[in-house]
């Protein structure tokens, strides 16, 4: 039997988890994934990328196919294969225009033929 304190604790944990994975206003997709994948490990899908798109760039309907075409079939692969950081430290995000899924200037998009 659940008590009031159990329900309150569960609600608190769910709210906290939602706040951790919520995209921040002005945060680019690459910085968002870099920040969140540290606290919410990749589950083998583009769940976090979709969450970002739904919250900040809902018109980016081809996001998943673009990421997959670059080798990003899950959120952690997006950071390994699609967006590469230009520096060791990628904080704070230098910002993205609302509705855009392009990375800020701390990242570059890997193109076909780029060396590993």
UniProtKB/TrEMBL annotation:
InterPro entries: DUF2695. It comes from Microbacterium arthrosphaerae. Pfam families: DUF2695. This is DUF2695 domain-containing protein. It comes from the Bacteria.
